[in-house]
Amino acid sequence: MAKKQMKLGAFFMLPGHHAVAWRHPDAKADHVLNFDFIKEQALTAERGKFDMVFLADGVAAGAESKVFGQSSSVPFEPFTLLSAIAAVTKNIGIVGTVSTTYNEPFNVARKFASLDHLSNGRAGWNVVTSGGKEAASNFGLKEEPLHAQRYERAHEFVDVVKQLWDSWEDNAIVFNQETGQYADASKVHTLNYEGKYLSVGGPLNIARPVQGHPVVVQAGSSEAGKELAARTAEVIFTAWQTLEEAQDFYRDVKGRMAKYGRNPDELKIMPGVYPIVGQTLEEAETKRQQLLDLIPESLGVARLSRQLGVDLAGYPVDGPLPELPDVSQINGGKSRFQLLKDLAERENLTIRQLYQNIAGARGHREIIGTPEQIADQLEDWFDHGAADGFNIMPPVFPTGLNDFVDYVIPELQKRGLFREEYTGTTLRENLELQRPENQFSKEAVTH
Amino acid sequence: MAKKQMKLGAFFMLPGHHAVAWRHPDAKADHVLNFDFIKEQALTAERGKFDMVFLADGVAAGAESKVFGQSSSVPFEPFTLLSAIAAVTKNIGIVGTVSTTYNEPFNVARKFASLDHLSNGRAGWNVVTSGGKEAASNFGLKEEPLHAQRYERAHEFVDVVKQLWDSWEDNAIVFNQETGQYADASKVHTLNYEGKYLSVGGPLNIARPVQGHPVVVQAGSSEAGKELAARTAEVIFTAWQTLEEAQDFYRDVKGRMAKYGRNPDELKIMPGVYPIVGQTLEEAETKRQQLLDLIPESLGVARLSRQLGVDLAGYPVDGPLPELPDVSQINGGKSRFQLLKDLAERENLTIRQLYQNIAGARGHREIIGTPEQIADQLEDWFDHGAADGFNIMPPVFPTGLNDFVDYVIPELQKRGLFREEYTGTTLRENLELQRPENQFSKEAVTH
Q1: Where's the Luciferase-like domain (chains A, B) (predicted)?
Q2: CATH number of the domain that A389 lies in?
């Protein structure tokens, strides 16, 4: 039997995942908003046989941050960018982040269905609930909605979107030019969904997506996030520093699936990984130091403060963290808070060490070394129940992505851990996920 | 002095503008949701030097219509499709319809800004207010919002979107890798907009669009629509049957601009035109009859009923229209109602004649004949104060578009009425529209 293979995402964040990637000599002023450059990156990822390009998103410029002017925060909006990438690629999946808090389910269902048709079945939706006061203010709210309310709405939202995707059965379009029947109206369904937060009539005004449902991805790792993922997600993008944490999470979430009638294989867990690749370990270490030296102290402290939700500005940067509140008092970013708190305690880090530690990987796992050493670290987690694959976060584009594609992927392929060619035509097929049945046509069979 | 030249839009509606274009032998089952086919159409339009591809939109499947199964209603969502078209074209403008009633201004401003960067300055936004009860039900409403309220919200919406586009000044991004200054925070502006319908903090999370503002297009021709256009629009897409009506409208709207401090040249009026091109007039007439013969009677009556907002099902199809209500009692589609009522009275048409008359062109002007005859009719309106250009609505793709590009455009070019090559790099430049100043940096200069 062929060896089980890992799934890989290429997490695009231009000009790179490092906190101040834009200051790196490989980054150029136009790398953020130049489609030709991003197209080249997408083609590189496709050459590397990545399962997907992954785009994060936020709905605020971060203008209230004290270090606003020091970081880059004006990327393309994911939908427009993903559609353009779809038009110039053939095989790679295209996964975008869209908020359930600041959008209408009809619009979201429709855009992902459209993207799925446009790409012949390569679309995926990363579901987020978008915390933050500045984001709220951009949508007419004085305060951000509470974490619990955002997640309640998210459950409804995902349910409605899936119903909208199913509102046209696969064979609803007849296209009989002779008789004049375009669609079989009995295979097109209204929903009349009425929930606590949402009410949607339907049907959607686009045919069922090629994949049935675009692949549903999630990133939150709080209790509410894990429950939403166990019930609805097919891919989880998550952040862990140690094998043990990652194994616990993997077991925990997969263990929650049975009560929703789901099989653990229906969900692929893909921790984020920030790789620094060298021809030697020494070269990789030098690259890492070069990146850390780019971070201004004020920026490092401010970013860490924001990620923790605690202002560290008054504390000595080479001293320890102050006493932190309990995670239950944090509204949003709960899992990130816990991870940073644990990391600082475990490794006894100063504020500077902690911000340097997370500056690039933003709480994700940093792996450094030769292609063989990088592959060893990925294989270790993959073989020991911590991951079904990884979301790769290059420190700086294009070099970080090129290094991974040119040196690490061939090493993974040599070990039989990664595909040599795309095996499916859809994202779902490449991820070895089943095409979902249509909930409305199933009912029709039952009655 | 060079002769003034007309502007041309290619109105994409797949598989064509005729009511049952999908039944025509040139239409194939996959023409609606096959990007490769649409890409080919976009390249044809670009070969024809069209100013823009134009996409209409609606946010309901129309499933409550009695003739739902007979017409095609499952196109791509405009944003995803336009972004993909942007990625595979170089010069042509890309204009999409987005509702101000069922979207958030932050999301809309951001997507058009993103599309404008993606296309290097070729984006345009057709502002609509989306009537209809089925649309309302898809967004949690029991009834459609009143016409007047939709337009009040639209005024606010366009204002806020323009402010968001201006929230980053053109030179706000510094990108000084040496000093670590990415952006000049003093050139990034919060809005704190508080209106009757909308409240938006800002700034936007993307740099100012390449064109300053993507081109603002409008289609409504009611009193409220004309006022919104005179105040905010740069292109109007409109529907008129006779030269006199079109001249009246042209004079009326351009006459309203002065009170908003605008010059008539800042607005291009482009009536829709449905051309049927033959090598002889007889061939064109045959093509027309072939199209009309495709329309089932039930569909013709139902479509006319919907466009009028009056159910005609009980009346003899070869008899006259019944007594119609006054236009003031119509909520939405006011200008379409008036146009159809006037047309039926003027030409003394039966129900069948009226639905056949509008089946293809949907109330727009049908022009039939040889390339020379088509060019004559366009030139007539262009020269006599009725139009600055036209939005071309091919009956069926690809043949209807090919005919126009291969035969009519060369005739217009021969007469000096249309460009031989693109003269600008942005849509705004091709339309001869000024790049707007930034409202926030103007203030900065004043104080």
Answers
A1: 26-386
A2: 3.20.20.30
